[in-house]
Amino acid sequence: MTQPTLTRSWVASANGHRDFPLQNLPLGVFSINGSAPRSGVAIGDSILDLHAALDEFEGEARRAVEATAGGQLNSFFELGRGPRVALRERLLELLAEGSKLQTREAQVLHRAVDCQMHLPAKISDYTDFYVGIEHAQNVGKLFRPDNPLLPNYKYVPIGYHGRASTIRPSGTEVRRPKGQTLPAGQTEPTFGPCARLDYELELGIWIGPGNAMGDAIAIGDAAEHIAGFCLLNDWSARDIQAWEYQPLGPFLSKSFITSISPWVVTAEALEPFRKAQPARPEGDPQPLPYLLDNRDQNAGALDIELEVLLTTASMREQNLPAHRLALSNTQHMYWTAAQMVAHHSVNGCQLQAGDLFGSGTLSGPQPGQFGSLLEITEGGKKTIELASGEVRKFLEDGDEIILRARCRREGFASIGFGECRGTVVAAH
Ligand code: CA
Fold first, then answer.
1. Is the N end or the C end of the chain the one with fewer CB atoms within 10 Å?
2. Residues 382 and 295 placed together within one structural domain of the fold
3. Is the pLDDT of residue 2 over 60?
4. Quick check: pTM over 0.85?
5. In the 3-class helix/strand/coil scheme, how is 50-77 assigned residue by residue?
């Protein structure tokens, strides 16, 4: 599908909007004035209430809108690509300049600032991958300078089962966790608030139809099982992690909260920003056959610019601009989203509509492109200086982390993901 680049929307704020022009049309779940959560579409500074506009849809598009009822998009995700595309095509008509829907503006549009966003789906399972190879190398170097990547990395899309119950939408406060840590030079742990609180810049992947237990999703079909994308912040307690992670991996250091941006950006909106998967460096193995598909290699990667910003309480009081911690890109993924889906299901593990994957931290190779404080400060060895005169190695109470994403391509309208925000508050 080509992007309707030149089409303008009758929703004036959508034209040239940083995140939500007519060409994006992400879905989400919102409430207004304490109403029950319901589905909507972001358009400029407004939200189109899908339920209020239901009689504007017919056929497959209406089936899609009906599947968004009940304040959760799981049934919509389960429908897959056909109804999703039909819905998009009808939305493009309804929201384009000249549409008669404009006469119903007061009935079907809400100002986004008046609305509260919710999680878009019930998340049964959450898996966090580790496909950002630059991050894997940067972190590996801190522990194994001569051998940063373990030998399985280039064969297996590495991941672990995360905690679905504590995933929250952007804006939810981040309570500093307490736990066991091993102070430097000690042999006995202590218990208390995390002292090395960090964020991780990740792409979130929403799962669509999924598979029955025992069946595997073939790599060539895997894209059909991706419902959309969001931003994901995998908040991490580095001191708790360092003490607990061997031999089974992260546990309480990650499960206290994971924040996501609330809008689901569809594969169709991202179509113009697809890229070939970058060629593997000389000497790297080719993916095993169950992970290798020509179409996926030729167009399965994404060109999405990713940004991390920090403000402190003091910076906000002084109206100082946010400090940019990183500017990275999804092209630093060693495995594609389709490869993650194929690998996750190859043993017969069931994926279900509304499951969420994290990509793993997406750092670039250069300073200024690192997606966590662990990398920026080399595990707390370096400090970050802020315009307020404050310094940071890890996050302090009152600090806010803001993730943003943006897709640009010559000749196409830019689209964004909205924001994924979280402010750290003191431990109980
Ligand atoms: Ca992670």
1. C
2. yes
3. no
4. yes
5. CCCCHHHCCHHHHHHHHHCCCCCCHHHH
